[in-house]
């Protein structure tokens, strides 16, 4: 069981850092832009990046994204830390094909890198509450957005619950079991964890009803800075089209 | 199994978005009268946390489970697919795990195929015992979801490998990992069956018609993807005309002739024409809706 516990704590700690890091990252100009504008811009950037195999277009979108991120004051080191692994993975996946067509390997990898940067620009500068409000503004069903919001808010609590169960099991362990034993006990631990999550869901439902419901709605207005950013995105798309 | 941006062709990604939205929309519709939000919100958080659990595998490595079949067994296919869609959306929007353009495909594979097939496999084999049924459900759910992911990226011309590579690689690898998925699913279900058997009582499931439609959509989704690829790169009628030596003689070319913008390269032109067309249709729809409301 100790192997499982160690791995879990290590993995979850890594994820926790990523999970909340954008909430604490330095404020940049992009942080001040409306979540709706950033969400649409991200979709535009990703579509532009993945809808072409022209090297000049892919490099254009990549350069625009990097310049916008740098000028806006995003932490570029942190951004590269977050994108390098999957970019490298994508390069390795298409490496055998790159032997015959090196340009394909380069363009494929750059497309993935550009998409990842576009998504990171959104993630690093937008709170999850803003994202949920933006989704509601774009008419994503309330049921789905509310579930997203609850899942996000309770994820940390559920991690703690899981740790508590695992630690309790570990403290009761008197001998190191076989692999089969480990898996069986692990299954039981996760079973207990799901039972507790059901019971918590019941309590949360009652609490929500007692407080008069849980509505995520958008109240912000489009500002001058949002229009400037939209113009930059529009200009990027225009430049992408004409080259 | 999360497909990132850049691996799928846009027509295929678009088709899978539509298929996923149809099933999720129907699931929300079926759950409209139930107070399910906290339940699948918190179960989604629990699945999300449980995905962090790495099970040691002999040989010094480890694997984690996806939880699609488990979500289906515990919540039923509708709430289960919504819970998985919530997990995948958070993974996409918070961790950049899975692409924005590929979210439709990821939801289709892991929140529709994995959940629905897992749920029905469990029901089909339940008479042989809950543990055996949940093992099969966990294994078959993740393996088939991976095979569908292989088909989707194999059909995409953006991804240089064809179906003959992507399907066996995804299917075989996940077929092996699926043993871990099945074992964990069986462990969880057995524990819940002994502690709270009421949770495993039969959940709201699709009626025969809805089930037939969803099953048909799952079966033909690779064909949809294939058709999207065909439409994206060639027009069958134009091919036929070319074979017969016929040529177009239009009376009026239109503002965006042949879905292109004069003076701009065809691919970009088609993209712009598509956006313009969508905006026009949306605007007309909005005007008609306003008109219908006032009359």
What can you tell me about this protein's structure?
The complex is a heterodimer of chains A (243) and B (295). With 243 residues, chain A is mainly α. Chain A has one domain. Helices cover 80% and strands 0% of the residues of chain A. Chain A contains 10 helices and no strands. Chain A has helices at 2-24, 35-50, 55-72, 76-93, 95-98, 102-123, 128-137, 142-172, 179-211, 224-242. In chain A, helix 1 packs antiparallel against helix 8 (142-172). Chain A is flat, with a radius of gyration of 22 Å. Chain A starts with a helix and ends with a helix. The model of chain A has no long low-confidence stretch (mean pLDDT 82). In chain B, strands 1-2 form a two-stranded antiparallel sheet. In chain B, a hairpin with a 3-residue loop joins strand 1 and strand 2 (61-63). Chain B has 10 helices and 2 strands, in the order H-H-E-E-H-H-H-H-H-H-H-H. Chain B is mainly α and 295 residues long. Chain B has helices at 10-30, 37-50, 68-75, 77-95, 103-125, 130-155, 163-195, 208-233, 236-244, 266-294, and strands at residues 55-57, 61-63. Helix content of chain B is 71%, strand content 2%. The chains are: A mainly alpha (243), B mainly alpha (295). Chains A and B meet through helix 1, helix 2, helix 4, helix 6 and helix 8 of A and helix 1, helix 2, helix 4, helix 7 and helix 10 of B.
The residue ranges of chain B in which pLDDT falls below 50 over 5 or more consecutive positions are: 233-237
Helix/strand-derived category of chain B reads mainly alpha
Tell me the quaternary state.
Answer: heterodimer
Question: For the largest interface in this structure, which chains are involved and how many residues does each contribute?
Answer: A-B, 80 and 72 residues
């Amino acid at each position: 069981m100790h192997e499982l516990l160690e791995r879990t704590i290590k993995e979850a700690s890594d994820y926790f850092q990523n999970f909340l890091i954008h909430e604490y990252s330095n404020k940049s100009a992009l942080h001040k832009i409306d979540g709706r504008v950033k969400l649409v811009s991200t979709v535009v950037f990703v579509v532009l990046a993945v809808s072409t195999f022209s090297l000049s277009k892919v490099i254009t979108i990549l350069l625009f994204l990097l310049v916008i991120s740098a000028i806006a004051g995003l932490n570029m080191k942190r951004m590269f830390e977050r994108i390098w692994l999957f970019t490298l993975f994508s390069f390795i996946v298409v490496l055998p094909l790159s032997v015959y067509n090196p340009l394909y390997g380069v363009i494929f990898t750059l497309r993935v890198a550009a998409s990842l940067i576009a998504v990171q620009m959104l993630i690093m500068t937008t709170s999850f509450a803003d994202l949920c409000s933006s989704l509601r503004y774009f008419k994503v069903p309330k049921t789905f957005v509310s579930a997203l919001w609850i899942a996000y808010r309770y994820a940390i609590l559920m991690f703690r619950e899981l740790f508590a169960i695992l630690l309790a099991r570990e403290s009761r362990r008197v001998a190191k079991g076989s692999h089969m034993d480990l898996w069986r006990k692990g299954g039981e631990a996760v079973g207990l964890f799901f039972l507790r999550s059901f019971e918590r869901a019941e309590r949360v439902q009652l609490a929500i009803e007692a407080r008069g419901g849980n509505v995520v709605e958008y109240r912000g207005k489009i500002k001058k800075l949002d229009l400037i950013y939209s113009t930059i995105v529009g200009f990027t798309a225009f430049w992408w089209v004409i080259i | 199994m999360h497909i990132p941006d850049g691996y799928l062709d846009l027509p295929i990604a678009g088709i899978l978005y539509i298929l996923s939205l149809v099933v999720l929309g129907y699931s929300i519709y079926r759950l409209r009268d139930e107070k399910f939000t906290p339940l699948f919100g918190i179960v989604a958080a629990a699945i999300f946390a449980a995905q962090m659990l790495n099970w040691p595998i002999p040989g010094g490595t480890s694997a984690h489970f996806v939880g699609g079949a488990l979500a289906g067994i515990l919540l039923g296919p509708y709430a289960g697919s919504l819970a998985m869609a919530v997990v995948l959306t958070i993974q996409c929007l918070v961790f950049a795990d899975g692409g924005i353009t590929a979210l439709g495909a990821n939801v289709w594979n892991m929140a529709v195929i994995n959940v629905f097939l897992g749920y029905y496999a469990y029901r089909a084999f339940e008479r042989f015992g809950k543990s055996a049924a949940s093992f099969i459900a966990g294994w078959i759910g993740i393996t088939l979801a991976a095979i569908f992911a292989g088909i989707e990226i194999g059909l995409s011309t953006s991804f240089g490998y064809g179906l003959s590579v992507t399907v066996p690689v995804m299917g075989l690898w996940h077929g092996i990992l699926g043993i871990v998925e099945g074992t964990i699913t069986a462990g969880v279900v057995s524990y819940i069956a002994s502690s709270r058997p009421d949770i495993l009582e039969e959940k709201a499931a699709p009626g025969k018609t809805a089930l037939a439609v969803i099953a048909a959509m799952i079966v033909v989704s690779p064909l949809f993807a294939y058709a999207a690829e065909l439409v994206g790169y060639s027009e069958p009628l134009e091919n036929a005309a070319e074979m017969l030596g016929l040529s177009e003689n239009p009376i009026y070319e239109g503002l965006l002739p042949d879905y292109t913008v004069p003076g701009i390269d065809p691919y970009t032109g088609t993209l712009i024409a598509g956006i313009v067309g969508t905006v026009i249709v949306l605007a007309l729809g909005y005007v008609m809706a306003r008109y219908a409301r006032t009359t």
